[in-house]
Amino acid sequence: xxxxxxxxxxxxxxxxxxxxxxxxxxxxxxxxxxxxxxxxxxxxxxxxxxxxxxxxxxxxxxxxxxxxxxxxxxxxxxxxxxxxxxxxxxxxxxxxxxxxxxxxxxxxxxxxxxxxxxxxxxxxxxxxxxxxxxxxxxxxxxxxxxxxxxxxxxxxxxxxxxxxxxxxxxxxxxxxxxxxxxxxxxxxxxxxxxxxxxxxxxxxxxxxxxxxxxxxxxxxxxxxxxxxxxxxxxxxxxxxxxxxxxxxxxxxxxxxxxxxxxxxxxxxxxxxxxxxxxxxxxxxxxxxxxxxxxxxxxxxxxxxxxxxxxxxxxxxxxxxxxxxxxxxxxxxxxxxxxxxxxxxxxxxxxxxxxxxxxxxxxxxxxxxxxxxxxxxxxxxxxxxxxxxxxxxxxxxxxxxxxxxxxxxxxxxxxxxxxxxxxxxxxxxxxxxxxxxxxxxxxxxxxxxxxxxxxxxxxxxxxxxxxxxxxxxxxxxx
Length: 477
Fold this sequence. Notes:
Blueprint: H1 6-9, E1 20-23, E2 28-30, E3 35-38, E4 43-46, H2 50-61, E5 66-67, H3 71-82, E6 86-90, E7 100-105, H4 109-118, E8 125-130, H5 135-144, E9 148-152, H6 158-168, E10 173-177, E11 181-182, E12 200-209, H7 216-224, E13 234-235, E14 249-253, H8 269-279, E15 283-294, H9 300-312, H10 314-320, E16 329-331, H11 332-342, H12 346-363, H13 370-394, H14 398-407, H15 412-432, H16 438-463, E17 472-474
Parallel strand pairs: 7-8, 7-10, 8-9, 12-15, 16-17
Antiparallel strand pairs: 1-5, 1-6, 2-3, 3-4, 10-14, 11-15, 12-14, 13-15
Helix pairs in contact: 4-5, 7-16, 9-16, 11-12, 11-13, 11-15, 12-13, 13-14, 13-15, 14-15, 15-16
């Protein structure tokens, strides 16, 4: 099921002349542009020579970006984009044709009808009926919109439905759209410009919830949908802030697909494909400037069941990608510092943090002010690792997290664990201002995480695999 090796497909990975690039969100310059901080995955990148001039221009131009004027600049852009330090803001006008739209469906004909209406005027549209109980309604919806219909006599799962759609469609670009989604006008062709970069295999828009009502779950989903990957454009890679994308709305380059989706996976087939593409050297992009909406599951049982089901994909994905699926990636120094703080040894915890900063400053000694940069990085990582521990205790280790919450009035360690769990939720509430009161938002976040974590636990128990439950600890160099 491996995707084709990128070397055999991308003989020329050069960005075209006239490409405009800007620094990725969150990337910062350091010491007069002698280093860049950020990227996918996050790192400190030293900058020198002509590249430093280019980076200075990028820092000065902000969101406007810089247009490549020569081959050397294009080569520097290529490196910056490959590391996730920069994103392509604009490409030369180039006709790439139209994308074929594939819509897997099973019943829900009314929803399918709305989805088909939203892609009216797009290229060819194929509906794959994956074993509907009421196939006549799906036939009628496809016929009303002039879509090609391919039928599975029995339900074979989303991976098989998408592979059938790939085989039935034409052209180099295939846009998958779930039958509960509504695309904006002009989609998917409005996103094809990303494929002017020959390294790009897949591009996804932002997928936001389109609640049918005003229930508590509807309002929660407007800010915490599991399909919503956020507001920042990203180069998607395992180990980065954004490690995967859903296929609810996803455009793919046919020549990158290889064997397509793994039909042995009923869940997680989208994550598996994304990881195979990145393993093969392809780029996968997230562009939130385009927004697709999807229907919410507002009934508590259906909502919780779906979260649980997502979690059950962990064991199978871990078997296929053993180095990628970990519930937390933590620094030894940060774990030591937080542990010492939890047992009432803040001075020793501070010493552990200072030791980490000292070791890092020695690695950064070629840069100006390495001590200040090291302190900043260690501080950010300490906060991130505390949040990662809280995330672990709310999801995969939620029974331990629940016990810590119950014991927090009489245990310093439990209070520290509880703070790690609750502080990120408080920050998210203050930042996003969801249309819910804090108590109900907190309750739904905890239930949401626990439902997913229960799926992971059950799947690992059935598969007798511990890897999806085991955090990775980065030891000192």
